[in-house]
Design a protein that fits this description.
364 residues, alpha/beta, globular, two-stranded antiparallel sheet, TIM Barrel
């Protein structure tokens, strides 16, 4: 098996990665993010994800747009693969195909895309764009991805869908990444899982338990298999590593104790339809409580909270049930991200090496 990969949430919006009034040593500015990206790739991170926000939400008053952010980080980094989040409905896939191919070309193959079907209705209505029903948003996203792949791989692409029409579209230069830049998506609903099985390269999961993650991976892998495909899996986690387990959990308690109650409740109201509006009443945040929503992608639920050894062992457990990438958020990016790279990642790599040795002995 390929070693597990590590990614981090780029803090390209203000307010950090928790909806809390607790002080955070992080910043949303370009200068800060450029330095952070350079540090991240030096200490072992392979991917970085820029989130997409267009209006203030849960404290994110200032936002650097995701595609712009990764294009600006590309020339100041050397190895990091840069993932930009985009919303179908706010972007046209042909335009994103051109932008993405350009970033991939200029970065020597280090561009990837996270296609976000959308949960925040206000971001669409402020621009006068229609807010589609839940499953329709995923149908549109699937067409969006099919257009991207066609534009990136075919010399002259034609497409006639319910949402998009492409009449002999083409992109030159083509992306360097072959067959095309990696495409990520998230979503816990049945519609999201079916879409992932059909078209996406990576499926991002909200924070969850080992068993919850195993179940998702088994279901989406089976759906992909029906299409003759394989898919990789990323897991969102809010990571707190301290010298003792007690210290780490004390930090968690402080984050929750200082939660911005109004902002958390507002976020909860905005997203509650994400799961409830599906036919199966299953989706993002459908089972999230107040504490889960303080880290807005259920990052606490993954349980990467404790000493370096404890967190590394938990990552090993996720890896063994099929997680290919850990997407981490941190309280104090300035300190916690480099510390994670210098302490936890080496332990994980050692655990992986030891596992390979055992597997080789078994085979012999």
């Amino acid at each position: 098996m390929v070693d597990i990969k590590f990614a981090y949430w780029i803090p390209n919006v203000s307010g950090g990665l928790v909806v809390s009034k607790i002080p955070q040593r992080t910043d949303w500015t370009y200068e800060y993010n450029a330095q952070l990206a350079q540090t991240a790739e030096e200490v072992g991170f392979e991917y970085a994800l820029a989130q997409a926000r267009f209006i203030a939400s849960y404290g994110a008053e200032y936002q650097l747009e995701a595609l712009t952010t990764v294009s600006a980080l590309a020339p100041v980094t050397k190895k990091l693969k840069l993932i930009a989040a985009v919303h179908p409905g706010l972007w046209h896939p042909g335009v994103v195909a051109k932008i993405g191919a350009s970033i991939d070309f200029l970065s020597n193959g280090r561009f990837a895309l996270n296609v976000v079907s959308g949960w925040f209705k206000d971001e669409f209505t402020i621009y006068g764009e229609p807010w589609l029903d839940h499953d329709e948003r995923y149908r549109r996203s699937e067409e969006f991805i099919r257009v991207l792949k066609g534009m990136w791989t075919e010399d002259e692409f034609h497409f006639k869908g319910d949402f998009y029409r492409i009449n002999g579209g083409w992109v030159k230069p083509k992306p360097i990444t072959q067959p095309h830049p990696e495409i990520f998506q998230g979503g816990n609903s049945k519609a999201a899982r079916r879409m992932a099985g059909r078209v996406s390269d990576w499926y991002f999961m909200n924070g969850n338990t080992i068993e919850g993650v195993r179940s998702q991976i088994e279901e989406v892998s089976a759906l992909a298999s029906l299409e003759g495909r394989k898919i990789k899996f990323g897991l969102n986690s809010f990571i707190i590593v301290r010298d003792t387990e007690a210290e780490a959990h004390e930090v968690l308690r402080d984050i929750i104790a200082q939660a911005d109650v109004e902002a958390v409740k507002g976020f909860g109201e905005a997203v509650k339809q994400a799961g409830a509006s599906t036919r199966e009443h299953q989706g993002m945040w459908a089972n999230s409580n107040f504490e889960d929503l303080v880290q807005y992608n259920d990052g606490f639920r993954s349980g990467l909270i404790g000493t370096a050894d404890q967190v590394a062992d938990k990552i090993r457990q996720f890896y063994e049930v099929g997680v290919d990438l850990i997407l981490g958020g941190f309280l104090h990016y300035s300190d916690d991200l480099p510390a994670f790279g210098k302490t936890v990642i080496p332990i994980v790599r050692e655990l992986e090496a030891n596992r390979r040795k055992v597997d080789e002995l078994v085979v012999v």
